[in-house]
# Entry
Amino acid sequence: MIFLQRVGSDLYSFFTSVRLAIVLISLIVLISLIGMFVPQRDWTREVDFVSRYGVDGYQWLKTLQFDHVFSSWYFLFVITLLTLNLLACTHKRLAASIRYYKLKQRPIPPSAIEKMEMHRVIPIAAANPSAVQEKVSAILRKHFFRVREEAGQVLADKWRWERFGIDVFHVSLLVILGAGLLTATLTFRTFIVGHKGDVVKLDKALAVRIDDFYSENYKNTDRVMDWHSKLTVLEKTQKPESVPSYEPTTTKVIEVNDPLAYKGYKFFQAAFGQDWMNSAEVTLRVTRASDGANLGEFKAKVDDGFEIQGEKIFVRIEAFLPDLDRAPNGTFYSRTQRLENPAAFVTVVDAQGNPLYPKNCCWAFANAAWKEEWKSLSAGLKLPYEIELIGMRAPEYTGIQVKKDPGQPVAYLGFLLLVTGISVHLFFKHKMIWVEVQPDRILLAGMARNNPRQFEEEFVQLINEIEKIEIEYRVLEPVNA
# Structure
């Protein structure tokens, strides 16, 4: 039992260490800097990582979790340690604050009053010191002091609760850290590339339907000024016949900086254009390499293909890149969503499903320069067919960013507590006053916790008001000769 108590005491001392807090905060800053300079996976495509860092570099990023540092195990571990540090420090300080709050103000000797830095002696000749004491108490109450009498002294104080300001600040940091942990572990994020009429399920009970979308141009120009999407939120209902269905609940036209909010979900207008990456339809010309015979022109969508009956082959369009480029390591990727250098990746199989082309082959280009470069690259492969990209089209899409962050309202609460705690600490100080009324003088002293100078102006004002008290003066008896 003694061993467990000692271990608990050592752990408590460890987690209340200021050095530990400094180390943990430094680590959080370092990890945050990594997150600033390395794109995060939530909004970055894998191909963009590969194009920037190469295949090996991207593998290292994934291994070190640099592509999602704010949800990485080491970031969550550091945040957890900092939370335990703050919990221990808050407990330690809060216990002291409660003891301070419960501690009663006690009378002090007149000699001690006169030795305090902020004191005043007001000469009087009072016939009734008790009446003077009541008037002094009334002035103090007017300035919102809590007044009581003990041992013939007036004891007054106010804002004793201000000591809890720093404790509220500590609690606010704990709330903010808790919000960060909720965001890192439970946040739902997705990006919808949608077309008119699409219904996208978000969870078991909620879906969103894209009713319409359109762009708004600047007057007399083709430049887009704003994007709009009309969304309807659908919620699952149970009909009397026990057949679940989705019923519309709310509809809104969203635009940039004006999202739709529903039950914690927020729908942001994020993109607009033609959906080349997912829904492109391409036209390909296929030529037999052996004799140069044109086998025809064929149309197909991405993830689909066409069969050439006479050759007994099937051509499948695996991907379409609107702005193809090649990374230094040879990886192909699309630099943008604009149709600037289109290319389609295709596979060709025979009637039995056997691939006729080697792995990572082949590309069909529309750009003449890339066609020639591809011919030179594939010359040694002796491919049985030449495939050219001669046409393409794609439907328009709207890009909707969907986010549900359970930590956001908690973070708002944390920042509210933080501002409250700092404000209390800056603008309020526990102030105490001791007053002793004697027949020939009033002894008055005051102090403010941590910052006596902050109380000086108010103390002088109190002195001025007390000096104006109308006192029933004591009449001295004449001395007989």
